[in-house]
# Entry
Amino acid sequence: MKTTRKAFLFVIISTLFIAVGQFFFKWATNNGIGSVDAIITNIPLFVGIILYAIGTVFFILALKEGELSVLYPIYATTFVWVVFISIIAFGETMNLLKIFGVVLIVLGVSYMGVSNG
# Structure
């Protein structure tokens, strides 16, 4: 099975939804989730769950159009998006190890794209 452009588009959309979902998970923890009542009334938590579910649906659609061995490394770009969201939204800082990790992910995904193209 050859991986289609639609599959690549779906997996990129998936990574964005899941990364933003993780942002909402972090935001939810900042609102406190220490008790059952706090979990039930935590809107950011439910937004994160919904975004994560939408991202999962897009990933499933991508898998229908392509090969897992090609698409899953692209899924790793979720980590890159989360790093940038964390810096922008939560004021987290980049250190040399994070930069190195992001570069490795980008190089790895690029290599997979070239080797399967």
User: Anything to note?
Assistant: The mean pLDDT is 88. The helical segments are 5-30, 36-40, 43-65, 68-75, 77-90, 96-116. Residues 69 and 112 are 9 Å apart (CA to CA). The chain has one domain: 5-116.
